[in-house]
Design goal:
By secondary structure, this protein is mainly alpha-helical. It has a two-stranded antiparallel ribbon with strand order 1-2. Helix 7 runs parallel beside helix 10, helix 10 runs antiparallel to helix 11 and helix 14 packs antiparallel against helix 17. It is globular and about 70 Å long.
Length: 459
């Protein structure tokens, strides 16, 4: 009993030793004392001392396991309280060392704290990913990052502001994930703000890039409306996370129901505006057939994914029974089909592994808007401007979205597809491939319309 108590105390103290330095880097990066403190190599002395105190008395057991590592042996060591505590001290020491290096290196290079803080928060939670992300930013250099931010603001300022705000929310959410242990329906309370921040940080700049290539004030005004809706959604999700209650499907109180209804009305407006922009995109040609079809099918896929969201607030059979009995269910609607929300799910996404999950087609559809333009950009870099590969990829992507929607509505987990689902996925994958591989007539080279023949000649 006393040994377990000592380990629990050591666990608490080990976290307390490193958190002040992380808070300095994240909350006060420009304070002169933050720089002075982080420049001292003694910063990591605390976690290293704790690690040494745990490891040195156990070298006789640890050295053979580390010299000839085997998974069962390591699993046995890490499965004990002592082993878990050693691993935790190891993580804390190396994570802080990585964070300290990122902070000082970024400061020497003149990188903005608005860029570095999200990377530090990612390093605090998942150090290898944070280091890799910083390596990419470091390779891009500060001037390039600032130039990118300036170009984004020039494309569409409201969408640029939403992008920067989403990145800030992501940084804050990652920090709060480390210090706030509350959960909502089995998931960390700040996981949803973090996921939505990532989604909108990808969506907003893509929309800005598309809208900048489309003429007319109405299209730009539509982008402003979408930026406002995205900002409102992030605010409501953050407020509900701070309160420790679900932001979606919450019917527990009049306030909760009102906030969710507000989000629903706002998202409906966003979907309608996106539909109008999609119609306009199908009426015009962009710089190349590849880009034209990437934008058209990307927007169409996003519309399909967004439409899945309208199925989620429909009450489940159990909720309808409660309503019929005169009760007020705490939740109305849900992501899962065939089981309540909050059960076992995949890491990070939390997609259900025991029932159908509408979030799968929702996710796939929405992110067609990033995947297809990225494919067109890669083709253009290789001087391949034809539209057929993008059309094939777009058909496959939207087809997969529809297949996973049918799978979810059947109550089938995404991790357990049956023969029907697998056969449909195969068909969805093969059929679009014919679009890219089978020769077409002269009037159907890469795109449809008057620009096709000229583009074929250029290619």
């Amino acid at each position: 009993m006393g040994h377990d108590l000592s380990l629990r105390l050591l666990f608490s103290w080990s976290s307390a030793v490193v958190m002040p330095f992380w808070l300095l880097m994240l909350a006060a990066p420009r304070w002169r004392w933050t720089v002075r403190v982080l420049q001292s190599p003694l910063v990591i002395a605390g976690p290293v001392a704790i690690y040494a105190a745990l490891v040195l008395p156990r070298l006789g057991v640890l050295l053979p396991a580390l010299a000839r590592p085997q998974l069962p042996l390591l699993a046995g060591l890490l499965g004990t309280p002592e082993g878990a505590m050693i691993a935790w001290a190891h993580f804390l020491a190396l994570d802080l060392l990585a964070g300290r290096w990122i902070f000082l290196d970024a400061r020497a290079r003149g990188l903005s704290s608005w860029i570095v803080s999200p990377l530090l928060a990612l390093t605090l939670m998942f150090a290898p990913l944070g280091l890799a992300a910083y390596g990419l930013v470091r390779g891009a250099r500060a001037a390039r990052v600032r130039a990118w931010a300036g170009r984004l603001a020039a494309l569409h300022r409201p969408l640029a502001l939403v992008t920067f705000g989403a990145l800030g929310l992501l940084a804050a959410s990652l920090i709060l994930l480390a210090v706030d242990g509350r959960q909502i329906l089995g998931a960390p309370v700040w996981m949803k703000p973090a996921k939505f921040a990532v989604s909108i940080a990808l969506l907003a700049p893509t929309l800005a890039w598309i809208i900048a290539q489309m003429p007319g004030r109405r299209v730009r005004a539509g982008g402003t409306v979408m930026a406002g809706v995205a900002a409102l959604e992030l605010v409501i999700i953050t407020v509900q996370a701070a309160r420790g209650v679900p932001s979606h499907f919450n019917n527990a109180t009049a306030l909760d129901a009102g906030l969710f209804a507000t989000m629903g009305a706002a998202i409906t407006l966003l979907w309608i505006v996106e539909l109008l922009i999609t119609v306009q995109a199908f009426r015009q040609q962009f710089e190349s057939p590849a880009r034209t079809w990437a934008i058209r099918l990307g927007l169409a896929g996003a519309l399909a994914g967004g439409a899945v969201g309208f199925l989620m607030p429909i009450p489940t059979p159990a909720q309808r029974a409660q309503i019929a009995g005169g009760q007020r269910p705490a939740l109305v609607g849900g992501h899962s089909v065939g089981a309540p929300d909050g059960g076992p799910g995949l890491p990070v996404t939390r997609w259900s592994t025991r029932a159908g999950d509408l979030r799968v087609p929702h996710f796939l559809g929405l992110h067609a808007l990033q995947v297809l333009p990225l494919a067109a950009w890669l083709l253009e870099r290789r001087r391949r401007r034809g539209g057929r590969p993008v059309i094939a990829l777009g058909m496959a992507w939207i087809g997969l979205t529809l297949v996973t929607l049918a799978q979810a509505l059947r109550g089938q987990p995404v991790t357990a597809p049956d023969g029907v689902t697998l056969a449909t996925i195969f068909t969805v994958g093969v059929s679009p491939a014919l679009v890219a591989l089978v020769p077409w007539g002269r009037t159907n080279q890469g795109s449809w319309g008057p620009a096709a023949s000229a583009d074929r000649a250029r290619s």
